[in-house]
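Hi P.,

Sorry for the delay on this. The queue was packed all week, but I finally got your sequence through. Input first:
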Amino acid sequence: MSLQSFLSSLPEVKGPLEKNLPFNTRLKWTLIILLAFFVLSYIPLAGLSVNALEQFEFLSIILGAKFGSVLSLGIGPIVTASIVLQLLVGSGLLKLDMTKPDGRTTFQGLQKVLTVLFIIFEAAVYVFMGGLSPDASLPPNGFFIMQLFLTAQLFVGGILIMLMDEVVQKYGFGSGVSLFIVAGVASQVMIRAFSPLTSAGALAFGSGQPATGAVWVIFSSFISGDPKSAFIAASGIIATLVIFGLCVYAQAMKVEIPLTFGRIRGYGIRWPLNFLYTSNIPVILVAALIANIQLTARLLQNWGFPIFGTFAGESPASGLVLWLDSPQILTKLFTSSLVWADIAHALTYTIVMIIGAVIFSIFWMQTTNLDAKNQAKQMMASGLQIPGFRKDQRVLETLLGRYILPLTIMGAIAVGLLAAGADLLGALSRGTGILLAVMIVYKLYEDISRKHMADMYPALRKMMGGLKC
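Then the structure:
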């Protein structure tokens, strides 16, 4: 069996018969998949022992996962498979012509195969490395069988996520990967802002215990005469709104290069180069690296080898993991517990985020055909050229070189600074999550306003038109 026939035989969600689905149909399927995602995320893994699931909080944001549920893997396998394939194609190790339908079909098929393999691999790693483990009191045979059972549940959850992503791609807005990330971040922000539950999970009203939601903390603190706690809670909400606004502003910034079609005189376009040139990819990779270092450090500590530092409960206590964890600067400032070591800690964390984002941004730009040479080649293939210059790829490459590398570096510094700032200021979600959510929603807004403005509900059309203006 050839590779093409094998890939074409893989199970998939059948696409719609209509070429352009109406807005109402796409909205319906998007909401159905979103509801299914939330329902599945609250189905616990059968046979799971009491695990320290808080250690996965960092990963859960960028993976759209709900650890301890059947969706514990989230979009991790899909994203990992996509990144690996893009790097292989971009570096030339895998020869695929992405400009042709056959090349794109092969890429999608290979991504599905890799996704299934990563689902199996990641499920086994989480279970057999002790991250999501069964009750340790089980006999050896029973313990191993329960590990296999947990791995099977994670495999089923991973396959469901992969299929739901396909449904959203073909019948909804954007992709399931983006939808699940935004859903996770929005859920975390809403819970931290409005949750009426106590830290023990009971309803706060009438229990005598304070609610964990920041809005309730503000009201209850003022009523009880504790303005300091109210200011701390309010600072998290304000920080979230400020970071959100700055992310939207940075996302909208771009450099537009005037180009003309050589064969059509008097007709040209403006080729946009976004200020956040490599988008949020650099800060995602930095966040994933830090999260994996924390997980590795915890496992090594459990095995008696605290090479990367130690943990006190769920919080880093010493070593590298402590310096890679963001201190709550505003909280310590309000409680008069801020010391010079905290400032040094905050500066170190910010520098790590910025330098890491710059390194990954340059790496991503060079390995995914976003550099000046490949962008110039793409423009030449589209028949574009610089007005007033002869049609020469080297001229285009020289012009783009003045913008692409500076934008790559400055954009990476901006996203690193925004992510670190949100973490240090105590925003209601991690800075990485806020960046992801804003950029995904902004891109989704642009796509919907461009493709579906005419057939959406009148109220939505009026709102989208007003935002566009």
